[in-house]
Write a structure and sequence with these properties.
about 160 residues; alpha+beta; Pdz3 Domain; two-stranded antiparallel ribbon; 5 helices
């Protein structure tokens, strides 16, 4: 069957493409809740479900097409390197941060534990570069008194693992 698809399909299809499509179809046919994930999809799912990943420890958002630091995570390598809220990220590891590519910038900043991510940022119009080590980061934690009946509670998006 694979040979017939390769020879008669309207576009050229590699053996790898056929293998992935076959496994994808096979898993999808099992039940409506199953799906085949390639390595990148699996890693994205693992990060979103466990909350454990490695990186430099900043929360970023897109503003006017630019990747802007919302806040460094308390105690993170980025905070210790002087990254501040409002910094615009211009480059990561020598490659420019492209207009409107927030998710790509986030992936590039994750890094493996022990590696260095080198963001170039623009605080207050001055360009600064830093070598920021990636380390294990983790789940959200609430900080404050253990018992409270009502009142403000600060919840941080992530907290560095000890």
């Amino acid at each position: 069957m694979a040979g017939r698809v390769r020879s008669e399909y309207v576009e050229a299809v590699s053996g790898d493409q056929l293998d992935i499509a076959a496994v994808d179809g096979m898993v999808a046919s099992l039940d409506p809740h199953s799906a085949f994930l390639d390595a990148a999809e699996y890693e994205a799912m693992r990060v979103s479900t466990t909350g454990h990943y490695s990186g430099v420890g900043i929360e970023v958002a897109e503003q006017d097409g630019k990747v802007v630091v919302v806040t460094p995570i308390d105690g993170s390598p980025a905070e210790r390197a002087g990254v501040r809220a409002g910094d615009v990220l211009l480059e990561i590891d020598g490659r420019p941060v492209e207009h409107g590519r927030l998710n790509e910038a986030i992936e590039r900043m994750r890094g493996f534990v022990g590696s260095y991510v080198r963001p170039v940022r623009c605080p207050g119009g001055r360009t600064r570069a830093a070598a920021v080590p990636a380390r294990a980061l983790g789940r959200a934690r609430a900080h404050g008194p253990r018992r409270t009946t009502a009142g403000p509670v600060r919840l941080r998006a992530h907290h560095a693992l000890q």
